[in-house]
Design a protein that fits this description.
Layout (H helix, E strand, L loop, with lengths): L6 E4 L6 E3 L3 H11 L6 H18 L1 H4 L6 H15 L5 H14 L6 E3 L3 H10 L3 E6 L5 H7 L8 E4 H4 L6 H11 L6 E5 L2 H10 L3 E5 L15 E2 L5 H5 L2
Parallel strand pairs: 1-4, 1-6, 4-5, 6-7, 7-8
Antiparallel strand pairs: 2-3
Helix pairs in contact: 1-2, 2-4, 4-5
Length: about 240
Amino acid sequence: AMLRLRLLTWDVKDTLLRLRQPVGESYAAEARAHGVRVQPEALGQSFREAYGAQSRRFPNYGRGQGLSSQQWWVDVVKQTFRLSGVHEDGVLTLMAENLYRDFCSARNWEVLPGAGETLSRCCQRGFRMGVVSNFDNRLENVLSQCNLRHHFEFVLTSEDVGFAKPDRRIFEEALRLGGVPPEQAAHVGDDYARDYRAARAVGMHGFLLRAAGQGKEPGVPPEHILPALSHLLALIEK
C-alpha cells in the first residue's frame, strides 16, 4: 500500500552533498598557497585524528561547553597541521580562517547525482521537506550556495538544536516543525545508526541510501534501501 507520508526529512553530507575532493587535498592546496608543502595523505590522516579527538572532547561543535563552532573548527584545522609538522602560529591562524570560510561554499561541496531532481520531484508531489543534519550553523549557507535551500521549509542542524543524531530529540524537533505525527514522516540518510535506526526509533519511516558495493545492514528490509536517490519516489508510491 502507498505510504501516507506528508513530511520528508533529509540528511545532507553524503546524502545530498559530498566534498568535491578529500579533506587532505583541500588542506594541502591551502598550505601551498602559503609556501608550505605537506602531503595530502598525511593531512588526511592528521585531520581524522584531530577531528576525532575534538569530537570526543567537545561533542557537537562544543555547543554545550561554550565554544563557537567556528572556534571548534579553527582548532581542528590548526591541530591537523601541527600533527603534520606545521607549527608557525601566524600561518596556522590564516590557513584555519581561510579553510573555515571555504568549507562554507560550493567551492568544496557538490550536489550528489540525482539529488536536485529528486528533491524537486518530491516538492512537486506536495511533500513538506526539512533537513536534519549533524552539521554546524554554516549549513543554511552551504545549501543556498549549492542551490538546494529552496526545497526545504526548515534546516535543523545539531548545533542549532543542541542535540546530534542519533539523539531522538533532533527528530522530535523536526516533527514539531513539520507539524506531523511520526508515522506520516520519513527520514532519508546514508548512516545506518544515525539516520535509519534513529528515525525508526521515534516511529518515523526510514530510507537508507546505500551505494553499490556497500554492505547489507542487519534488519533493514530491501524496500527501505535506496541504491540511488532517484529510487525514492518509486518506493514511497509503491
